């Protein structure tokens, strides 16, 4: 169960970084010369994701893309949170059965 927890937590951290990056991009969209933050996620051996932030090669905004990333981050956060809730429920059931 510990592996499941670390996988879900890495997903939560990735989702949080995606939401923060999208918010940062939206807030600074009108700043002259601003280069957007791009979130890169990669699967990790053994489960989970590694998340990193890069900068866009050119200046400019992409508000539609940032709004989609904001919504995607929300859905990813909810999905990983549901994994943790399910793990807790199953662990509680397992403990009830063995008690």
Key features of this structure:
99 residues, 2 strands, 63% helix, alpha+beta, single chain, two-stranded antiparallel ribbon, elongated
General description of the model:
It contains two helices and two strands, in the order αββα. The longest helix has 36 residues, at 63-98. The mean pLDDT is 90. With 99 residues, the chain is α+β, with helices and mostly antiparallel strands. Helix 1 (2-27) runs antiparallel to helix 2 (63-98). It has helices at 2-27, 63-98, and strands at 37-43, 49-55. The chain has one domain (2-92). Strands 1-2 form a two-stranded antiparallel ribbon. The two termini are 18 Å apart.
What is the N-to-C succession of helices and strands? HEEH
- The number of strands is 2
Gross morphology is elongated
Task: Give me the secondary-structure category.
Answer: alpha+beta
Strand content: 5-15%
Oligomer status: single chain
Give the end-to-end Cα distance, rounded to a whole number of Å.
Answer: 18 Å
């Amino acid at each position: 169960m510990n592996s499941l927890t670390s996988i879900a937590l890495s997903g939560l951290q990735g989702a949080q970084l995606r939401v923060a990056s999208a918010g940062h991009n939206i807030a600074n969209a009108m700043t002259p010369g601003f280069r957007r933050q791009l979130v890169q996620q990669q699967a990790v051996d053994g489960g989970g994701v590694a998340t990193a932030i890069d900068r866009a090669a050119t200046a400019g905004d992409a508000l539609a893309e940032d709004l989609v990333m904001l919504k995607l981050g929300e859905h990813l956060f909810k999905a990983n949170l549901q994994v943790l809730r399910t793990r807790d429920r199953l662990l509680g059931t397992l403990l009830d059965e063995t008690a």
